[in-house]
C-alpha cells in the first residue's frame, strides 16, 4: 500500500508512528550504525556513497578465513563454500536483484573495469555510426572510460561524445527529450550509455523507455547502475538492455571497494562474433584446468570473467545479498518511496524557500536520494556534520541525502530536517 502525502505529519510523533508501522524497521538492527562522539547513532544519509556494514559480514568472512587457515589450497574444493565455484553462490540473488536471468549476471572486478570490458564488446563503431550518448553530468569515471574508448578507436570525444542536457532552467533530463534526440540523431549513435540513477541529481532514468527508443534506432544500450542496484526495482532482461554494470559498496552494503556486478543480455550469451578481452576464468569450466591454448568462453556473463575472484569481498557481498533476497526489492522500494517522500514533505513544510530539490518530484523518476540546493551550502553542510549528520557535499552547491530503507528510520528523516532548519536559521 502506498502511503499518501496527506498521511504524513510534520512532527516527531508522526515520524515515530511511521516507524512503528514500518514492517522493515527491524532490519536496522542488522547493521552497525556509526556513532557520534557523544555515543548516539548518527543520521546516516550516505548509503549512496558507502552502505553500512551488515553485522553478518564478519561471520561470512571469518568462515573463509578459517577455511583458508585449516585447508590451504584444498579450500578451493573442500571449503564449506568451495572457492572454485564461489561466485556462483551469488548468481541467483544477483539475478533477482536486477531483474535478470542467472546466465545474464556475474559478480567480478570493479565497476569501471567492467565498464571497459563491456565497451570492448559492445561499442562497435562503424563508418556510419560511431557516436556515444551519455549524460552531460555523467560520473567522471564513466566519462573518462567512454572518452578513452572513443580515442582508442581513433575518434575525438569533442565530436563523438553526445551529451544529454536538461532544458534551460530545468535540472533534470526529460525522457521525451531523450526519445526525440534518438529519433533525430539515433542513426549516428552506436551506443547509449547512461546511469540508471544520476549520481548528482538523483534522477532515475526511465530505463525501459530509453532502451526501447535506443534499440528502435539500432543503438546498443548499456546502463551504469552504481546508484540504482539495491535502490530501484530493475528489469534488465525485460527492458532488453544490452549490458549493465554496477558496484556493490553503495546501496548494496558490501564494503569499501567491494566487487562489482555485470549484466549481459541473454541474446548475447553465445555470440562468438563479439570481440572481448579474455582471461582464464571466463573459459569453459570443463576444460579450464587442462590449460588449453584456445579460449572457449563460458556462455553468458560469466564468459567475461578474467581472474579467479577474491573470496573475502565475495563473502561480504554474499552476506549483504542474503538480506536483499530476504526482503525483496519490491518491499524495499515501497518503503524507500515512502521514506524519501517523507523527506520531501518535511522539506516543503519547513523550508519551502530555503531549499530547492533538484531531484524529480515524480517517485518513478527517483530512488532514495534527494539532491538539495541550499543557499550557503558548504557552510550548512559543515553544520550538519557537526550535529551528527552524515551526508555529502558536491561542488558547486549540492547536498546529497539518501535515506536508505534497510537501515534508516522516519525519525532520522525528521531529525535531519530539524538540524537543517536550525543550520539555515542560524546562517
Ligand atoms: C560510484 C560510481 C563509480 C565508481 O567506480 P569504481 O570503478 O567503483 O571506482 C562509477 N560510476 C558511477 C556512475 C558511480 O556512481
Write up this protein.
- The protein has 427 residues and is α/β, with parallel strands linked by helices.
- It has two domains: 5-30 and 329-425, Aspartate Aminotransferase, domain 1, CATH 3.90.1150; 62-325, Aspartate Aminotransferase, domain 2 (3-Layer(aba) Sandwich).
- 37% of the residues lie in helices and 12% in strands.
- The chain is built from 14 helices and 13 strands.
- The strands form three sheets. The protein has a seven-stranded mixed β-sheet, sandwiched between helices.
- The longest helix is centred in the C-terminal third of the chain and has 22 residues, at 329-350.
- The protein is globular and about 70 Å long.
- The chain starts with 11 loop residues before the first helix and ends with a helix.
- The structure holds pyridoxal-5'-phosphate.
